[in-house]
Specification:
The chain is about 45% helix and about 20% strand. It is an alpha/beta fold and about 180 residues long. The protein has a single domain, classed as Nucleotidyltransferase, domain 5 (2-Layer Sandwich), CATH 3.30.420.
Amino acid sequence: MKSNQAGGGWTTSTRSARVLGIDPGTRIAGYAVLDFEGVSARIVDAGIFRLSAEAPLAVRLQQVFDDVAALLREHRPTHVALEAIFVHPEHARTAVQMAHGRGVVMLAAQQAGVPIAELPPAEIKKALTGSGRASKEQMQRAVMAQCGLTSMPEPADVADAIAISLTGGRRLNCIPDGVLR
């Protein structure tokens, strides 16, 4: 396995897996569960958690934890993938908020005994579009094309979660880059 990220990485390769990809947030969090078998990937479930912007941060974090724990119980993934933090000076506050969300996702996965990998945003974008600087719309279009969807996943948080799961599956060597059936 290629991943040795701080905070958790996967250490083995596999030909089949169920990966829960999480696009963490404290207002909207995207999730996607994908099954990988050989060179094929299938979306099992995908969606978002809508969190009340008016609720205190601690309440929203509890909701994220509870929702992720429920997904882990329901879908029993073999791996969890989430986006690593990228801090842009103009958006430092967003990075701090995202870190809170990532923390509770990691705690839920750790408590469930599911291995966690953190994927850099540029790696996710490059794996799907060929460019580490892809826009949200480019990511949505790439997910739509690579997963054989008839429309772009909405909102963008769902597409991001699917992309995170796809990249996680590729890291596990379930699917070579650019190959998806």
